[in-house]
TrEMBL record:
Superkingdom, natural source: Eukaryota
GO terms, biological process: response to stress
InterPro entries documented for this protein: AAA+_ATPase, AAA_N_dom, At3g28540-like_C, ATPase_AAA_core, Mitochondrial_chaperone_BCS1, P-loop_NTPase
Protein source organism: Oryza sativa subsp. indica (Rice)
AAA+ ATPase domain mapped to chain residues: 237-396
SUPFAM superfamilies on file: P-loop containing nucleoside triphosphate hydrolases
Protein name per UniProt: AAA+ ATPase domain-containing protein
Biased amino acid composition, Acidic residues: 486-495
Compositionally biased tracts (Basic and acidic residues): 496-507
Gene3D superfamilies linked: P-loop containing nucleotide triphosphate hydrolases
Keyword Transmembrane attributed: no
Length: 524
């Protein structure tokens, strides 16, 4: 054993002597050139390709480095014995994991295996700089087989960027934006004011028939996953939803459920704060992708009512002579002082939702809500602007069961365990359609009686339903009690039909005759 250590010491001394001779005889430039040649020769016969993703690119950050770090923290599998770093970014709702220095992680894409290594090296001392660089140089090294290069690049990097963007969006708190200053910019050059979006509504708690909810959720998922479809068909990646129905039927809750389901931010556009079509376009340009743009109560925001109905209903006033014999424009005299300054028009709103300016972003949803669909201009309702019309009806029995589960922790099987509970549930099913009560009113009754127990709260709700049904006309109550959902669907179809066909009823020769008669009166 002693001879082994003596031989090893002699060998190390010889190596040190040769290293000193090499450093003394051969200059550093020559040694570096030889090292590069040996490295190239080794890589030429290696079955792998190596790609470095540095943390910085010049004086700026490398977007791919941040994306790789996010992607590997959730999608890839760490190698045996790898050490992970735990962090939680600002304004994030979940933790993220990252690779420590010199650790590796394994991944696969389209059947090809890849290896990522996180390399951290100290940076050489730098002189004075207005923007000092970090003390360490960080990079990810990607190793793939040469035969898989055509399969992985650039599709694998595109996949990483898309996955990282989705992770970043879902880990951060969603935001609710409003245009409190109209179209004016703040100090950061943004016209929107954000606040955290904490609405808890989901499709599981939304009071709506399960079949209709499933159809809406499927439509939303098809939209979110339809990038290739919209690109192939040449359509802008956007979709419009019109929510209409009586007040208190859950239109705002539906919007919150859509945002929580997709993980999108919400832009609440207040049209009364917008002064012109140019400001409207400016607001649209400053919205982000993967967002929902909402205009609530659009029939009450600005004058966007049905043009044909308004023209048929309005009679031209008889001109009143002034002192000098001229005619006074009564409309101009009656208009408020600020009406001329506000110039947002129906055409501007139509271009906002379906014009060229609506294509300045991607993956955006437009949602309009109204209590009176018949008041809206048919141009707003056509496909391409409002693609899906969702009628938010009065509370039905399937929706009532969801509300009972939400507020009373009630299940249909549990409610039928006793004869009294079963009778109460049967009465609720009988009277719910005849009462024409909104989910908001049902929720208020259940909230007030939730401390009294499940059965007593249901009995109180049954009394409220009976009282509301008795106040309604007997014919209407009987029709709802017998027809149920069929009458509701017929009413929905008739309401949409009247809204879409109204321009044909109000236009034509009658409008031209009235305009001609008004001109004759002015000339006289």
């Amino acid at each position: 054993m002693r001879e082994y250590w003596t031989s090893l010491a002699s060998l190390m001394g010889a190596v040190a002597f040769l290293q000193g001779v090499v450093h003394a005889v051969f200059p550093a430039e020559l040694r570096a050139a030889v090292a590069r040649l040996l490295g190239r020769a080794t890589r030429a016969f290696s079955p792998y390709c190596y790609f470095d993703v540095t943390e910085t690119e010049g004086m700026g950050t490398n977007e791919i480095y941040d994306a790789v770090q996010l992607y590997l923290s959730s999608s890839a599998a760490p190698a045996a014995g790898a050490r992970l770093t735990l962090s939680r970014p600002h304004n994030a709702s979940s933790f993220t994991f990252g690779l420590a220095a010199s650790d590796r992680v394994l991944d696969a894409f389209r059947g090809a295996a890849v290896t990522w290594e996180h390399v951290v090296a100290p940076r050489q001392a730098q002189g004075f700089s207005w923007r000092p660089l970090p003390e360490e140089k960080r990079r990810f090294t990607l190793r793939i087989r040469r035969g898989d290069r055509g399969v992985l690049l650039p599709a694998y990097l595109d996949h990483i960027l898309a996955a990282a963007a989705d992770i970043r969006r879902r880990s951060q708190d969603r935001l609710l934006y409003t245009n409190a200053r109209g179209g004016a910019m703040d100090a950061r050059g943004l016209p929107w004011d954000p606040v955290p979006f904490k609405h808890p509504s989901t499709f599981d708690t939304l009071a709506m028939d399960p079949e209709r909810k499933a159809a809406i959720m499927a439509d939303l998922r098809d939209f979110a996953d339809g990038s290739a479809f919209y690109e192939r068909t040449g359509r802008a990646w956007k979709r419009g939803y019109l929510l209409y129905g009586p007040p208190g039927t859950g239109k705002s809750s539906m919007i919150a459920a859509m945002a929580n389901h997709l993980g999108y931010d919400v832009y609440d556009l207040e049209l009364t704060e917008v002064g012109s079509n140019a400001e409207l376009r400016k607001l649209l340009m400053k919205t982000t992708s993967k967002s929902i743009i909402v205009i609530e109560d659009i029939d009450c925001s600005v004058d966007l009512t049905n043009r044909a109905t308004a023209a048929a209903a309005a009679q031209p006033p008889k001109p009143r002579a002034s002192i000098d014999g001229g005619a006074i424009d009564q409309d101009a005299a009656a208009a408020p002082a600020g009406a001329a300054a506000r110039s947002i028009t129906l055409s501007g709103l139509l271009n906002f939702t379906d014009g060229l300016w609506s294509c300045c972003g991607s993956e955006r949803i437009f949602v309009f809500t109204t209590n009176h669909i018949e008041k809206l201009d048919p141009a707003l309702l056509r496909s391409g602007r409002m693609d899906m019309h969702i009628f938010m009806s009065y509370c039905t029995f399937p929706a009532l069961k969801i509300l009972l589960r939400n507020y009373l922790d009630d299940d249909s099987s549990a409610s039928s365990s006793s004869a009294a509970a079963a009778a109460t549930m049967a009465g609720l099913e009988t009277w719910i359609d005849a009462a024409e009560i909104t989910p908001a009113d049902v929720s208020e009754v259940l909230i007030k009686n939730r401390r009294n127990g499940r059965e007593q709260a249901m009995e109180q709700l049954l009394e409220v339903l009976k009282a509301r049904a008795e106040k309604r006309p007997p014919s209407a109550a009987a029709g709802n009690a017998t027809g149920g959902g069929d009458n509701e669907e017929e009413e929905e179809e008739e309401e949409e039909k009247r809204a879409l066909e109204s321009p044909k009823e109000g236009g034509g020769e009658d409008g031209q005759d009235e305009e001609t008669e008004a001109k004759k009166q002015l000339s006289e």
